[in-house]
Amino acid sequence: MWGLSTSRPQHCLKIGAQALVWGEAVRTWRGRYRYRCVISPTPTGAIKLSPMDLNLTDMPTVESRLRSLAGPSRDIRFAGRAWLSDVPRPIVLLLSDLSVRATVLQLEQFPAQAEEQEALIRWRLGQEQLLPMTGAKIVWQGFPSHGAGDERSHAIFVVAIQEAILKQYESLCESVGLLPQEVGVTSFRLFNLWLRAAGRKRLGHDLFWVSISDGGLTCFVMQGGRLVFVRTKLLIGERLQGEEDLEVDLVNNIAEECAVSLRACLEHHPGLNVTEIVLASDSPFPTLEQALKRELGLSTERLDWESVKRLGWTNDGGSTSWATLPVVAGVM
């Protein structure tokens, strides 16, 4: 969502409490893209996701695992000689939804200059007490629309992350020769991937988007092509991790929280007419569609690897588990 340059990094790293995921993109001489992903379990207890407290509780252990996952730094070579050694590799860094706070603002006017935009957003967030602003970095993306009389209004998706948390992640990356050139949020990268594959015409209908990752649930609701609702909810505590017999309860919990989110949105947008759910998850959850159908009465579409194929990207080895899809979205 925010970056340091206009060039697109060819590597993406997603850091979660359960897994570290690394993705690489290569463009062939024909202009086609290939991807390769690898995944490594996060050392138990080394990362605890939180939007307020430091996430990396065992930095040396995570650093060692990440070094093995991403491989060595690169050298800049010319005419057979190494001119620069251990050059940091630019990457896209994806953070878990549980490490940030997000909300949506509805604005009638939105200035053109970035500095004025940030000042307005911070003022509104402070006035409405939606997000804690002390020591926080904010980034945003707009969803402009035209109303009656061609009057333009704006829905602004805002993400806030504590600077101390961001610096900790950046320090981890730099310690293994990685330079976070762009930083994004997992659910929104997946949403943008789906939108590219499905086409913007899909936003002509009201839409309920659900992302399940790192033991958390994020819901987006789109109405008339603009974002009107955002909610992130922790689903899994440490006591549930690794207990396979609780998957049924987890699926039911997801369905219930989706229903809560949709009801909360309908209170503020009674004209909403959602007919389907788009689902992205880091686990297969084979019974989830049935649970959502039972709870909400809505059909479900999954974001999967077929979406990547439709965009012309092909696999070049490595893992193709559900959990690796975000890093491909990160380099697209």
Structural account:
The protein is α/β, with parallel strands linked by helices and 332 residues long. It contains eight helices and 17 strands. The protein has a seven-stranded mixed sheet with strand order 1-11-7-2-3-4-17, sandwiched between helices. It has a five-stranded mixed sheet with strand order 14-13-12-15-16, with helices on both faces. A three-stranded antiparallel sheet has the order 8-10-9. Helix 4 (186-198) crosses helix 8 and helix 5 runs parallel beside helix 6. It is globular and about 55 Å long. The chain starts with a strand and ends with a helix.
Q: What order do the helices and strands come in, and which of them pair?
A:
Layout: E1 2-3, E2 11-15, E3 19-27, E4 33-41, H1 59-70, E5 74-78, E6 81-87, E7 89-95, E8 101-107, H2 114-128, E9 136-146, E10 152-162, H3 163-175, E11 178-185, H4 186-198, E12 207-213, E13 216-223, E14 226-234, H5 247-268, E15 276-281, H6 288-296, E16 299-302, H7 305-310, E17 313-318, H8 325-331
Helix pairs in contact: 4-8, 5-6
